[in-house]
Amino acid sequence: MSVKVSPTAYCKLVLHSFRHPHYPVRGALIAEKTDGNVVHLVDAIPISHDVAALSASLEIALVHIDEYCTQKKLVLAGMYFANEVLSDMSLDPFTTRVTEKILTQNPAAVVLQLDNTKLGIDSSSAGCSVFAPDSNKAWKPKKFHIENEEGTLQMVSQAIQSKLYRTLVDFETHLDSPSADFLNPSIAAHVKEVN
User: Fold this and answer.
1) Within 13 Å and on the Cβ side, how many CA atoms surround 106?
2) Are 128 and 83 in contact (CB under 8 A)?
3) DSSP, res 51
4) 22-55: per-residue pLDDT in tens?
5) Cα torsion at 43, 167, 187, 24 (round to 10°)?
6) DSSP summary character for residue 129
């Protein structure tokens, strides 16, 4: 299995991390339906930035995301997260447990971990790692690539410099302000315009 990350997905998950730099962030990974050999992550939907609100907001968010995927003929393909502490590179047990549940519906589901130490205005390499379960159900690193990596990293750097992350809305924020769209269409439109 190989994993491709679209510019839109990468941009949204990095901006989510920048929007809430002092909190752990989590979100859903959305993919095109495939034969199982390639996981093409086409979107990322930010869910939370607070550990305390996780279980309730996550359950409601996943229902909404599942409906969205059904309408768009996409699939829920896993979860992403960034740890709260800059140097913490451990896999988040809550995120892996949620992804294990997703695996029952999508056996190609993955976990994407943001590497806070590699994220910045002038990132020269992908600031993340992708994990999938092996035959023993242990989470192992998987090879992945970001589409148009050089251009995508440059575009994300420009988005950070222009403080586009201030416009990002996660599902937790949407619950406080229902008019705020956690699908972040303005960020997706920005990525499409730049690319």
Assistant:
1) 27
2) no
3) G
4) 899 999 999 998 776 889 999 999 999 976 545 7
5) -20
6) E
